[in-house]
Each structure stands twice: as structure tokens, then as C-alpha cells.
Design goal:
Number of strands: 15
Number of domains: 2
Radius of gyration: 27 Å
Low-confidence stretches: none
CATH superfamily of the largest domain: HUPs
Number of helices: 15
Shape: elongated
CATH architecture of the largest domain: 3-Layer(aba) Sandwich
CATH class of the largest domain: Alpha Beta
Order of helices and strands: EHEEHEHEHEEEEEHEHEHHEHEHHHHHEH
Helix content: 40-55%
CATH topology of the largest domain: Rossmann fold
Bound molecules: adenosine-5'-triphosphate, magnesium ion
Structural class: alpha/beta
Strand content: 15-25%
Distance between the termini: 49 Å
């Protein structure tokens, strides 16, 4: 039988497991790998202690490798060949793994591990046995234990021995679903999708909330947000998006609040609604894309004045980042080209000519008391629409329309 690279051996950071429930972590990671590879029904995903094995069963490896790079909780992975647990099979498979490995390979070293302690040959004996076999069957190849071109990794496990050359760096972080749920305030801009991505990286499950103001904002603005949420599914599975009709509340703010406080009050209203949604959806924190000092509404005074309306933790993963750092990530995760499409979201539509950069809680509360906003908040909450994005081009709403 021809020996080929027909496995991907997935490693995860053991340090990240400290003090955590290892079993839950591994189960979640396996589930997430399965979801990321759902378009490849032939692959089989198996869990062995400390590793996940992806059996390719004839599937092309490159699209699978691209998808695995997005899965949080993976530290690295390698294409691997599987040998039987005997000396002959291991030697021959290691030679094939070396020969079929692409790239510079004038020098190599063998690095073996014996996770299966009943295997009779110790790693000290295994390394030279395999090394000699490769040297015998190749030309112009030498061993270099310090800086080899290729490290041939040999892992003896109960169900077989896995051999790989080289490794691909994983996304790091923790598997999505191992931390609690968060509510991501998702605008159509550059920042909030990146904030969502970074929160997922720490294992949180993300639901998104978007405020829109039809007819001042159009369907394309909404579609843009759905597309952004859809892109985020690549990193952690389906994303629920709650779309809040904000028009009437925004108009009420516009008509009843002094123009230099409309921005502050509008943000407070968004946060109040998000706070209630967070409780309803049993989420444990709110995430936004604010970065300190980036715009008038993101001064510390402004954050202080807005924050008053909730006791829920607000995570601001971008708070210390420069715009260019954020753009780098947005480009890497593919949200940037969508974020810069020119459709207005609700904030720009009612943007007053000037806003205070140093609002206070006292003034904000005083202005809010001048009018009963509660019925408008209630109305917005009652009319939230939920769509689930699952990474395919069609989301549920579009599917419903088609049926
Ligand atoms: P972004 O690039 O994420 O739009 P921004 O630099 O435009 O951010 P702001 O407009 O001040 O900044 O918004 C700050 C944060 O408030 C956003 O990152 C987002 O989390 C939240 N936000 C703003 N507008 C909306 C909206 N229409 N729906 C939901 N959240 C919003
Ligand atoms: Mg914005």
C-alpha cells in the first residue's frame, strides 16, 4: 500500500489548560474543528489524549489547512503519516514522510516521543534506528541535531505512530465556547468586528447586536453588518445577530436633547438596550470596538458618562490600540474590505455638528430626565429581529424569503 500524508495532527497549548477542565476544553475544540471542516464531510476527527487527529480520507489538504488556521485553541498542526506500532513500519513511514516532505531537506533530525509506554522500543533507541534508515535510503542528506532543515517528529500512540515533518502555526487562544457568552456591539465599521474576533480568541461565544435606523439607513447597511457577522463565524461557529430598530428612539433623542449631548445620550440608550438583551440572552459581558481617544465619543470622560447605565462588564479589546494596528487585524481576518464600504450606520445619520468631548454623568442624567424615553426603549426591545449567520452565503432570513 502506498504510504501518504493522510492525517493532520493537531496540537493545543498545554499551558493554556492549567487549572481548566481539560476534558471540556478538548471536547469543545473537537466540536469547533468539526464545524470549521463541515464542508469536508469525508474527514474524520478523532480525539486522543492531548491531540486531535484529522483523518483526510482522500480530501485535499490545503483548504483544510486554511480552515484549521482559524480555529482558536490550536497551537500548531502538522501533516502526518500513520505507521503501525512496529519498527519496520515506523522506519519505512518515516522515510516516506521525509521523502514526500516539500522544501529544503539537506539536514534532518529525528524527534520521537512515546506516549504509549507499552511500546517496547525506547525513544533513545528509536531515534538512531529511524535516522540510520533515512540516511541509508537518501543521498546528500546528513543529520544535524542543532539546526536541521527538517525535524522528523515521531509520536508513538496506542492506536498507531504518527510521523510528521514541520508544523503550521495555529491561531492560539482558547476554544470558542470555553468562556461565557458576550454581547458584541457590532456596527458596520472597522473596529467592532476586530473586537469580536479578539474576544472569541479568549474562548467567548459571541452574539452580536446592531442598531439600525431605517429608512435613514438602508438594506445595504444592514447586509454589510450581516456579512461581517458571517465572516466572524469562521472563528467560532454560528453567530446570532440581534437587529434593534433604533429610528424612533433616535428621533426622540434628536428632538429632545441638546445637540452637544445627543451623541452621549444615544450611546447610553444603546448600552441600556444592550444591557437588557445581555441579561435576556444570559451573556456575561458587553464588547465594543472603542479605542481610547480615537473619536470624540471615545474619550475617558465620555466612556465614564456612558458606562453609568450598566453594571455589566464592558470589554474593550481595542482600547489601547492604534488605528493601524486594528486595520492590520481587520485585513488579516478579512473584514476590512467590507467595513470600508460606504453605507451609513445609524450613528452617522443623526450625527450633530458638534458633541462635547467631556460629557458628565450629571448632565447626561439631567438631560434624560427631561423626556420619558422608556416607552421608546421598550418599543425597540419588543421589535428586535434575530438572524443566525452560519458561514454560508445565505443566512436564515434570506432562506426564509426563498421558501
Ligand atoms: P466601529 O469601527 O466599530 O464602527 P468607530 O470607530 O466607528 O467603531 P464609534 O462609532 O464611536 O466608533 O462606535 C464605538 C463602538 O460602539 C463601536 O465599535 C461599536 O462597538 C459600537 N457601535 C457603534 N455604532 C453601533 C451600531 N449601530 N450598532 C451596534 N454597535 C454600535
Ligand atoms: Mg462606527
Amino acid at each position: 500500500m502506498e504510504i501518504k500524508y493522510d492525517h493532520l495532527l493537531v496540537r493545543f497549548g498545554e499551558l493554556a489548560l492549567k487549572g481548566r477542565n481539560r476534558n471540556e476544553f478538548e471536547k469543545k475544540l473537537k466540536e469547533n474543528v468539526r464545524h470549521a471542516l463541515k464542508e469536508h464531510p469525508s474527514v474524520k476527527i478523532k480525539r486522543t489524549y492531548g491531540r486531535i487527529m484529522v483523518e483526510l480520507h482522500g480530501e485535499q489538504e490545503s483548504p483544510i489547512i486554511e480552515k484549521l488556521k482559524n480555529v482558536f485553541g490550536i497551537s500548531s498542526f502538522s501533516l502526518a503519516m500513520k505507521a503501525e506500532n512496529n519498527e519496520e513500519s515506523i522506519k519505512e513511514t518515516a522515510l516516506q514522510a521525509f521523502l514526500q516532505h516539500e522544501g529544503k531537506k539537506s539536514t534532518f533530525k529525528i524527534e520521537s516521543r512515546r506516549a504509549y509506554k507499552d511500546f517496547p522500543i525506547s525513544t533513545r533507541d528509536l531515534n538512531p534506528l529511524i535516522g540510520t534508515h533515512i540516511l541509508k535510503n537518501t543521498e546528500n542528506v546528513t543529520v544535524d541535531v542543532h539546526q536541521p532543515d527538517v525535524e522528523v517528529s515521531v509520536e508513538v500512540r496506542e492506536q498507531g505512530t504518527y510521523i510528521s515533518c514541520g508544523r503550521v502555526e495555529g491561531a492560539g487562544g482558547l476554544p470558542v465556547g470555553t468562556s461565557a457568552k458576550v454581547m458584541l456591539m457590532l456596527s458596520g465599521g472597522i473596529d467592532s468586528p476586530v473586537a469580536g474576533y479578539l474576544t472569541m480568541k479568549r474562548g467567548a461565544t459571541v452574539e452580536a447586536v446592531h442598531f439600525h435606523s431605517p429608512p435613514y439607513t438602508n438594506e445595504r447597511a444592514r447586509k454589510k453588518v450581516e456579512d461581517l457577522a458571517n465572516l466572524l463565524t469562521a472563528f467560532g461557529g454560528p453567530v446570532r445577530l440581534h437587529i434593534v430598530p433604533f429610528t424612533n428612539l433616535q428621533k426622540a433623542i434628536h428632538e429632545n436633547i441638546h445637540s452637544n449631548y445627543t451623541m452621549t445620550i444615544m450611546r447610553r440608550m444603546m448600552l441600556r438596550i444592550t444591557d437588557r438583551l445581555t441579561a435576556e440572552r444570559r451573556a456575561k459581558a458587553i464588547v465594543n470596538g472603542e479605542s481610547l481617544g480615537q473619536v470624540a465619543s471615545q474619550t475617558l470622560e465620555s466612556m465614564h458618562a456612558i458606562n453609568e447605565v450598566t453594571t455589566c462588564p464592558i470589554l474593550r479589546p481595542l482600547v489601547t490600540m492604534d488605528k493601524l494596528e486594528v486595520i492590520d487585524i481587520a485585513e488579516k481576518i478579512g473584514t476590512y474590505p467590507i467595513s470600508i464600504l460606504p453605507y451609513d450606520d445609524c450613528c452617522t445619520v443623526f450625527l450633530p455638528p458638534e458633541s462635547v468631548t467631556k460629557p458628565t454623568r450629571e448632565k447626561a442624567s439631567r438631560f434624560e430626565k427631561a423626556f420619558d424615553f422608556e416607552p421608546f426603549i421598550e418599543e425597540a426591545l419588543q421589535n428586535i429581529e434575530m438572524v443566525t449567520l452560519d458561514g454560508s452565503n445565505k443566512n436564515e432570513k434570506e432562506m426564509d424569503d426563498l421558501l
